[in-house]
Amino acid sequence: MVTVKLNQETYFIEEKSQLSGVKRVANMVRADLGLIFGRQPIWQSLDAITTDSEKTAIFAATIGQSAYLDDLLNRKMITASEIENKREVYQFQVIQDPWPSVKRALIIVGSDKRGTIYGLFHLSELLGVSPFVNWSDLKPKPETEVTLTDKDNFVSREPSVKYRGFFINDEWPAFGNWAKIHFGGANAACYAQLFEVLLRLKGNYLWPAMWKDNFSLDGPGLKSAALADELGVVMSTSHHEPCMRSGEEYTLVRGKNSPYGDAWDFQTNRDGIIRFWKDGLKRNAKFENVITLGMRGERDTAIMKNATMAENIALLKDVLKVQNELIKQEVNSKLSEVARQIVMFNEVESFFYGDDTTPGLIASKELDGVTIMYSDNNLGYMRTLPSKAIQNHRGGFGMYYHMDMHGGPTSFEWIGSTSVPRIWDQMSTAYDYGVQEIWIANVGDLATNELSLSYFLDMAYDMDHYGSKYPNNTEIYIQNWLKQQFGNHFTSNDLSLIQKVIDDYMLLLERRKHEVMGSDTYHPVHFGESDTVLSKCQEIMQICQDLRKRCPAAALTGFVGLVYYPAVATANLMQTWIYAGKNQFYAQQNRVIANDYGNKVRLGIQRDHEIIADYHQIGEHKFDGFGLSEHFGFRQWSANNNQYPLVYDVTPANLPRMIVSSVTASDYSLGEAWTNQNLVITDFMRPDVTKAYLDIACGSRDSIAYEIINQTPWLHFSRYFGEVQKQVTIEITFDRKNAPLVGESSFQVKSGEAVVDVKLPFRNGLFDYPSQTFIETNDYLAIPATAYVSAIATDEAKFVVLEPYGKFGSGVKVFPQTIDFMAIKERPELNYHFAIEQVGQYELTLHFAPTLPVSQDNHAYIQVGLNENSLQLVDTVLDSNQPFYNSPQWAIEGTNDEKQCQIKVNCRAGLNLLRYIQISPNLILERITLVRLGSQLPQSYLGPTASYKLL
Amino acid sequence: MVTVKLNQETYFIEEKSQLSGVKRVANMVRADLGLIFGRQPIWQSLDAITTDSEKTAIFAATIGQSAYLDDLLNRKMITASEIENKREVYQFQVIQDPWPSVKRALIIVGSDKRGTIYGLFHLSELLGVSPFVNWSDLKPKPETEVTLTDKDNFVSREPSVKYRGFFINDEWPAFGNWAKIHFGGANAACYAQLFEVLLRLKGNYLWPAMWKDNFSLDGPGLKSAALADELGVVMSTSHHEPCMRSGEEYTLVRGKNSPYGDAWDFQTNRDGIIRFWKDGLKRNAKFENVITLGMRGERDTAIMKNATMAENIALLKDVLKVQNELIKQEVNSKLSEVARQIVMFNEVESFFYGDDTTPGLIASKELDGVTIMYSDNNLGYMRTLPSKAIQNHRGGFGMYYHMDMHGGPTSFEWIGSTSVPRIWDQMSTAYDYGVQEIWIANVGDLATNELSLSYFLDMAYDMDHYGSKYPNNTEIYIQNWLKQQFGNHFTSNDLSLIQKVIDDYMLLLERRKHEVMGSDTYHPVHFGESDTVLSKCQEIMQICQDLRKRCPAAALTGFVGLVYYPAVATANLMQTWIYAGKNQFYAQQNRVIANDYGNKVRLGIQRDHEIIADYHQIGEHKFDGFGLSEHFGFRQWSANNNQYPLVYDVTPANLPRMIVSSVTASDYSLGEAWTNQNLVITDFMRPDVTKAYLDIACGSRDSIAYEIINQTPWLHFSRYFGEVQKQVTIEITFDRKNAPLVGESSFQVKSGEAVVDVKLPFRNGLFDYPSQTFIETNDYLAIPATAYVSAIATDEAKFVVLEPYGKFGSGVKVFPQTIDFMAIKERPELNYHFAIEQVGQYELTLHFAPTLPVSQDNHAYIQVGLNENSLQLVDTVLDSNQPFYNSPQWAIEGTNDEKQCQIKVNCRAGLNLLRYIQISPNLILERITLVRLGSQLPQSYLGPTASYKLL
Fold first, then answer.
1. pLDDT for the residue numbered B800
2. Which of A145, A233, A824, B350 could tie A7 with a disulfide, CB 3.0–4.6 Å?
3. Final residue of a domain: which of A437, A470, A503?
4. Could you tell me where the DSSP H helices lie in B433-552?
5. With a CB-CB cutoff of 8 Å, which residues 581-610 of chain B face chain A?
6. Are B937 and B665 in contact (CB under 8 A)?
7. Who contacts B184 (Cβ-Cβ below 8 Å, separation ≥6)?
8. Which residues does the UniProt record annotate as the domain Gylcosyl hydrolase 115 C-terminal (chains A, B) (predicted)?
């Protein structure tokens, strides 16, 4: 067994021929080791080493680039057969006596430059250094010595996806200010930080910021591009910036006397545009790039307004032809050797497919060897994916994936809100459809998207472990990720708490993004959904405060940046909106307590500012700037015209006023004879409910005295009388043991002359139905999709439960993900049992994740059947004639994070069997509700909680 | 010429036989004279007088009741032939040497007791004493001496309506508290005040308060009833209290062992109820009464729930028969000599008419000789009126008229809101239909209804001067009334100001009652209607403050009670709601100025309390209690659940935000490229408009700097640049002389990167249409009903312009008011001219006063014709199958004080002729609007201002 010890004495072997990029990375790893052992390893040339058995040498080299390595291989000190001729692979090995003067060494061999770099960072990772050590200022745990043995030897895999990276997008105000404060701009020093994060996460690909910044000019000059190339970072430009020139560059060089002309128009300024592209290609040809092809309008707009499909396609074909020609001239005459991409973002997708009369770009020979980049719906759900017909396209497919958006249906640029289960589901689907060449995530400012990006890049790196064969891997992933970041600093119990906080705040965001949260999102009282969310927010904030108190200084900046800030800021925002909902709702009823909620809203807005200020100052202003994006009350896709919650101020009534209601219902009574003295509380219709809650609120200047008059022996009240200045909540306990089977109880609430008659219909459970049957209460049923009584699989496919997942916490989806069952007779099926009281027509609502149809024919079918009735085929796409993307359905479902599909069904009295079949791919059913026609389910965002289910 | 001088020496001749009521009134007049001359005239018996030529004697007597008078008549010192055998008539005459010891005397002779009383008060009035001298504490002007001559001799008329009076109703909290504070309750001392006001206003009839009070018990005992009888005040009970017993009396005497039984039910407790009635009749038989017949349910509810028409009518017939029988037994065996009434309030009206299968009470012999009391729609508009078929009904007809309501569509119990033009129109209509026996006005607490009640009683007294032959008499009436109250205290200029204030605040109320005013009544910006109302409110308040400063102490209490309080409190309430509308409207747009409006709302609510407190303390708490009724934000007909305006609090945006809009439009622009940079101001499409107004508002924490970029030579701006912290209004002047005939101008408003492009389409007037033609602008036309180009009269009838009148200031109505033109070929007609640009379909809306059909067949027809098209017959009743009263139409029209009737018409390009014909009686057209189909008129309460009209 070989043993090497790493400590203050460890040194790095320097070789003159070492690639400068590898050396740069080695220096980063040296710094990491310095943080651990208190002293950075020194560089030593092999010649200068005198025998010293106690010191361990670290030697990193790339096959074909190192005489020392060749020597070792020649001497069979090591072999490299496992990595030779592979892409981005490394071998990590401890050996004895590699050279006479070196007794013990750690040898890191890369199959190529990036292989060596990943191998170097493997050491840091092994020693407990977070990839975000510098980005988030997360100090590793100091050690005196670490011992490595044969057991630590490791040969890495070839990455699943060829180009894996991120896009710094919409960089103002957040990233832009951060860069300005810390580096004076988005220059090479700034990009050095990003490259490091990218490489530590085993990415290799980057689209630079381009809203107002120019990567190839701001280095200064080409400094950033040269650095990227040195470090093995493959650069490109964003989806609408062809030929390695950023969009803003044209603004800088255009003009009446400019050689580039003065119009971003390939028709009227063909020569100028060609010259502009040619010079860009020439300038960046010496670096490793993926070159963007195609053309859009200026500043990410449609290329031609009011043109036909045929005109657009013809123009684009011409553009592509010219661009390929330019690449041959300026980059490489063997075009097939040049990595190129075209991105089907926005309207470009339709040109790719064409229409009935005009063939799309899809079959154009200009795209031969070009990677076709698909994209998501702006919110992390796939748009179309490669059809079987084009699976063999040379150049393969890529994915441009949004974790940040400046556009519809809503912008989200503040705090990362893309959950890892969503990424797993949709990116594994994409991969299964052949999207394996390029994965790029738009991460906005990157800050607060670290977890999602880590997961995205880890998936891209290793689909053998993160692919569709491994559902529900995200919880363990987060657990490991947190161990990586904070394992040295928090107890395992606290790590669990952090994970809970992350799960919880990401669930809040999975339900509704910050920007589109509103006072009317969650209903203030129905089904208690606001209170449920509110207590979740408060729990998040409380846990975070507690954790922060326990957080060691070495991790504080990282904890605030990666956990505390995004979680607390999210919880505070959600809480503020819920308070606003309650303020406005109670104000309409003239409850004086509305004003207390109004003050909570004001405090919430103030707290939002404080939370951001805290984030900006932590770690000596480490993150200063990153919190600057607007995030309250978007009233269109952009922040323009956004609005903080309006606070409604109530003037109390002059005359004493009691307002009585169920805590979870909108109707209320003042107990006034002229109007309404009646109130019905239906909670006890559900056989497992024994508590209900009554609000007695004051609506007047003067407090009110109330009295509860009850003569029902099985009803008990937490209070029977009192004085109410604002509001009191009375707990009503229903003693089921002493109550009849079915009936209606009642009591009265009196205050002065006001009398409210409260009726409580109730029902005790004695149902002769099979186990797992859901029981209708108050004319509705709510059934989680995972609560099926039986699942029928086929030889080919089966339903898989995804959990945690989506808006409602879980869902069901058929795997393999690529099968369309339309032409297949055998189909997996789920069965549900529910019982209703009376025969009748019901509205059945299927609640899905807001996925899109993945095929261009624009259908997403399911089948539903009730009892012995034949199955009903239903298209969940409302209007197949218009592209789904940018349709009203796209906007509504994306905003609500929910696709709803309504079907009328006839139910019989008693037990019913509901059959559910998924026909089209990429549909995830989350829950099922049934409401008796004619009944009105109280308005809510999450719907009723799951119905009573027999054990 | 006979001359008598009134001064401190004047005395009253006392006669033993003088009626005690007359003597009481004489004492009131003595007190009046005391206020004027500084000393009350003494009583002297004729025997005790020694010759004294300088002293004037006042002698008041009733024919048949005075030996002194008989002696004078015998000696032909006076003759009384003009008044003999007349009802309530007096002769007022100065004579010389009536008796040896009396050289000069004023002789007041009454044809009966009330005649003498009215004659006595005639003296007070002649001396400038207001009828409200004591009620409102309005001191007359002190004089040393007043000379009366033959010219002052006067013989009064016989009143037009036999019973004229008011009903103190819904006495709590206002009147009830006032009575308690000042008299310890609604006892005889309290009623003495009301009787005095009634008699000074030449009324003779009263329904006492009965919500919680009992007139015949609380005197104490019969003291109030006895006093009424003594003073010649005819008493009754309200519409639903038969046989001289108040409703609450039954509550006091009912019980298990009570002789009256324990159920207000003529079927199950027939004997008890009969006994209850019998005892009431017996008790009050000795007084002059009008006895109410019929029966309703307890506390003014329907008599039988869920009973058929036939059952109800049968029951009521039985009731009437029994009641008549009891009256014969207890009051007068000659039933025809007993004044009796039955009131058709609420559902009773339908029993009166019956239905297809059941004849109504209308022809029942039990009603022979009984006055049939009709009633209004609760808001001062007639319901059905006597048809021709029953005009000869013995007992005649009466009217129960509401100037106060506790019921639907809204309660109004605070400040009097019934305008005198409305009273004239509707009561003169009723009179013309034969309603001439009883007029009673529900005046609520009386306070603040003084002017309306004065007018009502003056009409009832003298329909030869206030009848339908004299339209538009109300302005001169108010002028005289104000002279009567304040003539001694204010200059004539100030009196005009007072009249203006009264006209203005009554117009506010004519448009919308206090209780149903809301933040959404007037649109905050459209057509500038809120600003127009707002400046009216501010003008009212300013004038009232100024007048109050100039008001002499002797009139201050009266001025506050009759003018200042109702006007200022009304203006403040209306203003507060308009501020609330602006607060909420601007808050939605995130204008920071919304918060200023919010504070104005808060101040308005506080000011409301202060205004009432001031009213309550003035004149040593003279009116204390009268301001207590709720009056803000009724959300159902009653005050329960009413609500002060909600104030919306805006949090300014973080980033600089400019908000640009036309001052009178809802749409606005932030000048932001992603969203909307355009704004259109259409004001200059109207050829007489040369000014338009632009709001530049700040929506952000930081102020904004703006700049106006204008290159149009005929546009001028009041400011071209500036800094805006809240809001600035820019005046745009359009220099028509230098502008082309038609076109579109434009300018820009810039702030930072924001640019708003403002377009101003315009049109100069060069129209080749006849004079008085209205010109369409922006797809609509608004034409006042009085702006006809020609009016066609018939031999029988013609249109009359009513002005001031109604919601829009004027209207047109056909007179005589009783003609139904359905069967008449010759019809009066009005013609209007208007011009439109393009041929097209328009929605024509006729805006009427919210009158009801007066005949039971429930139609209200008009005819409309356009150009040569045939006339279209339109029923303004939306659903003739349900009774109009209590229908949705009744509620909406009553609340909005407007009946709208929509008709689609085809207009031709150019000049159009609109013909309007009123078919059914009691319809008052106020204005006409036309809107091009497909165009949307901005939402508003008053509609657009009148369109451009050619001179």
1. 98
2. A145
3. A470
4. 450-461, 463-466, 474-486, 492-511, 529-550
5. 587-588, 590, 598, 602, 605
6. no
7. none
8. 773-945
Is residue B354 included in any domain, yes or no? no
Q: What is the CATH number of the domain that holds A409?
A: 3.20.20.520
Contact B642 A648 (CB under 8 A): no
Domain closes at, from B593, B621, B649: B621
Q: Of the spans A24-33, A356-365, B303-312, which averages the highest pLDDT?
A: A24-33
B624-668: pLDDT as tens digits? 999 999 999 999 999 999 999 999 999 999 999 999 999 999 999
Res A206 pLDDT > 80: yes
Residue pLDDT, tens place only, A652-711? 999 999 999 999 999 999 999 877 899 999 999 999 999 999 999 999 999 999 999 999
Mean pLDDT for B85-114 is: 96
- How many separate domains does chain B show? 5
Same-domain pairing of A518 and A565:
yes
Is pLDDT at B28 greater than 90 in this prediction? yes
Residue B479 lies in a domain: no
Residue B52 confidence (pLDDT): 65
pLDDT tens digit sequence for B582-635 = 999 999 999 999 999 999 999 999 999 999 999 999 999 999 999 999 999 999
CATH of the domain at A589: 1.20.58.2150
pLDDT confidence of A874, banded at 50, 70, 90? Answer: very high
CB of A648 less than 8 A from some CB of B: yes
Does A493 contact chain B (CB < 8 Å)?
Answer: no
Q: What single letter denotes the amino acid at residue A82? A: E
Rounded Cα distance, A885 and B88, in Å: 88
Contact B590 A672 (CB under 8 A): no
Give the structural domain span for A508. Answer: 492-621
Q: What is the largest CA-CA distance in chain B?
A: 104
CA-CA distance, A201 to A207, in Å (whole number)?
Answer: 16
Instruction: Report chain A residues whose CB lies below 8 A from the CB of B653.
Output: 642-644
Please check whether residues A702 and A559 belong to one and the same domain.
Answer: no
Statement: residue A776 has pLDDT above 90: yes
Residues A150 and A167 in one domain: no
Is A313 within a domain? no
Residues 6+ apart with CB under 8 A from B372: B341, B342, B344, B352, B386, B390, B393, B395, B396, B397, B398
Contact: A648, B648; criterion CB under 8 Å: yes
Give how far Cα A492 sits from Cα of A473, A497, B548, Å.
19, 9, 79
pLDDT interval class at A52 (50, 70, 90): low
How many angstroms separate the CA of residue A644 from the nearest CA in chain B? 6
Both tokens of B412, joined, read 């109004």
Residues in B closer than 8 angstroms to A697, CB to CB, are none
- Subunit contact B672:A605, Cβ cutoff 8 A: no
**For B633, which residue in chain A has the nearest alpha carbon?**
A653
Q: Does B53 touch chain A (CB under 8 A)?
A: no
Determine, for residues A640 and B672 on separate chains, whether the beta-carbon distance falls below 8 Å.
Answer: yes
Q: What per-residue confidence (pLDDT) applies to A362?
A: 84
A621 Cβ contact list (under 8 Å, min separation 6):
A181
Pairwise CB contact (< 8 Å): A647 & B644: no
Phi and psi at B620, nearest 5°, equal 50, 50
| B167 plus B144 within the same structural domain | no
Question: Given an 8 Å threshold on Cβ–Cβ distance, is B675 in contact with A643?
Answer: no
By Cβ distance, the residue of B605, B640, B651 closest to A605 is B651
Q: Is residue B529 part of a domain?
A: yes
**Å from A492 to nearest chain B CA?**
41
Beta-carbon separation of A640 and B602 below 8 A: no
CA distance A867 to chain B (A): 45
Q: Does A643 touch chain B (CB under 8 A)?
A: yes
Q: What is the pLDDT of residue A299?
A: 66
Contact A327, A335 (CB under 8 A): yes
